[in-house]
From TrEMBL:
GO terms for cellular component: ATP-binding cassette (ABC) transporter complex; outer membrane-bounded periplasmic space. One of its GO terms (biological process) is protein transport. It is a lipid-anchor. Keywords: Disulfide bond, Lipoprotein, Palmitate, Peptide transport, Periplasm, Protein transport, Signal, Transport. This is Periplasmic oligopeptide-binding protein OppA. Residues 1-23 form the signal peptide.
Amino acid sequence: MKKTNWLLLVLALVLSMFLAACSGGSDDTSNSTDDADSEETTESEDTSSEEGEASGEQVLNITDSAEIPTMDASLATDAVAFQWLGSTTDGLYRLGENAQPEPGIATDHEVSEDGLTWTFNLREDAVWSNGDPVTANDFVYAWQRAVNPDTGSEYGPYMMGGVIKNAQAVVDGEVPVEELGVTADGDYTLVVELEKPVPYFESLTTFGTFLPLNQAFVEEHGDQYALEADTLLSNGPFVLTEWNHGEGWTLEKNQDYWDAENVKLETINVNVVKETSTAVNLYDTGEIDRTGLSAEFVDQYRTSDDFKVEEEPVLFYLKMNQENEVLGNVNARKAIQMVIDRQSMVDVILNNGSIPSVGHVPQNFTKHPETEEDFRELNGDLIETNVEQAQELWATAKEELGMDTVELGYLGGDSEVAMNMDAYIKDQLEQLEGLTVNVQSVPFKERLQRDENMEYDIQNSGWGPDYIDPNTFLNMFVTDGGNNKTGYSSEAYDGLIEKANTELAQEPVERFETFLEAEKILIQEDAVLAPLYQRAVAQLWKPYVKGVITQPMGPDYTYKYAYIEGK
């Protein structure tokens, strides 16, 4: 009866797909592959492969529902920051169509026979927006800065530790930062030494943490670097020219970009809008060119020519802090996993093509190297909704803990949709007898900080891939991992992840099957997370917006080739 009343209530709620996450996105991130409902599917390459010519004013107007936390590539951890870093800065490579790396500052590279030494040849016509040339030293400085303990980077140790030679030793303070395995052989040759062969290293180089930095400029601005438009440099397609914190920002075409002739947009205007209804009104009046939809908005616009649904390899889940006495109990965690009705969540709350999540590697993301079977299909559903069994597990947990009633905090977002989603999850969790859930709705930037400090009991979180490999989802939860933040530690799990990334690094079949085994431990045996859903995006796009490429990792959108035609 309680659940039925709730589902009737949410039919009247105004929702969108913009839910807060860590790397998986802020309150506004979208990208795609395809959706199960074929009549509602628009594949990502459709917008980028349309042939046409730019005409009229080349201005794109969009919204985001969260502020950019930082534009410092060493400190960025979320999809909002990575989106606009990727729009303003070129790394060695950048993602083009079909998520394939294409030349950025690097024109090409060679790999040694043992897979340990990568030599990148850099273009000589790339410059920073202050006129300085982009050189190999900019990469050396940026990568050293990212792993330097004094910087306080979260992603530097996470992305480079165990990958770049000596990175972990630098992080641990065992060797000086100058011994990191990255050197400049002259101004335009970058030599990278790896700890071990890394199958996905080229993909890694497109990620935001690996972007170059102009040392003189960064050091000139000190702790104010990248916090304002005038304390930031660009070497990519666009320059951030205006940044009104909490309100929005403006990007303009970088006239000095090495590939400026292929950049058609002159301006991208982004306004921060937290309410879905407001964003839809702005779309309908022609003030913005894209908006996200969900719930009754999907039904209202489903037949519109502007309507698109796209599936993403982005997962949302509940993180449970095992330093909390209750959540340190595996039966309590399993009860939380099983009590949530995920199908109703995606059908009624989201209504945007999202699907229930049943593991921690998304569907349609990676395939078995020999059989070509999808990872998710091979490992199957690792959890199910079963309220009766959840109650039994919860009763066992309370008995083990010596408790009759339990009170837990729940860390959620402050956007309209996040608060409605969190209210639904609170309602679901409180089906467990004697449980009270206290929801705390905070801004995205504060939630990132509280996650970093593990100042939460339960948290609605999300993750999008940093590279295309199961490791990007599964290595998060190794003991003391930079993105673990749950207190989870398992020798068995750590051993499998380590084995996959060392002795099996060049054995693709055995490596893949080791990841299958590790996922079962993470979700099924140890119940570290309570999976919620794999996100899809229901959107309206103005038909005159062409050439936008959606990506499965890094920036959700590539705007380099976007243009306006026939507005």
